[in-house]
Amino acid sequence: MTRRCSTGPILQHSKNKSDPPQARRRTSFTTICVREYEQCLGDCPATKEGAPISLSWVYEERESIPLDEYEEARKPRRRRSELVLGVMERRQKLLSAGSTFLEVIRAERTVALKNGLLCGMTRQNDQKQHSKSLPKNKCVASRAA
User: Fold this and answer.
1) Taking the complete model, does pTM exceed 0.70, yes or no?
2) Helices 101-114 + 87-96 axis angle, to 10
3) Structure confidence by residue, pLDDT tens digits, 118-130
């Protein structure tokens, strides 16, 4: 899966000395270069649930196109709620991008532990076995993913 990023590398500056100062400081973008980056397992500390997704260093450079042409062809901006991925969507994207199931599960557990979501044992048998050796209110990670 790839994401699309755009930048405007070509600038036009007004250098005519007879132009008023406001006009001389104007900058405009004429073309953009689009790069499509691969996605990979990330380490973002702000992730609330699920494995973090990052952009890889690997990208594919696209042809430069005029800014006006890009603006006409691009999809409408999405709302913030449309940008948030659920746990299963994240997992599927990462598995499709080449991460192993074990890597994704480990990353999910790391996020859950960081956010305090894996407090207490999930299996009743484990609770009975360890209840004598653990002080009350101690956080213990479960073995289930």
Assistant:
1) no
2) 140
3) 765 344 444 544 4
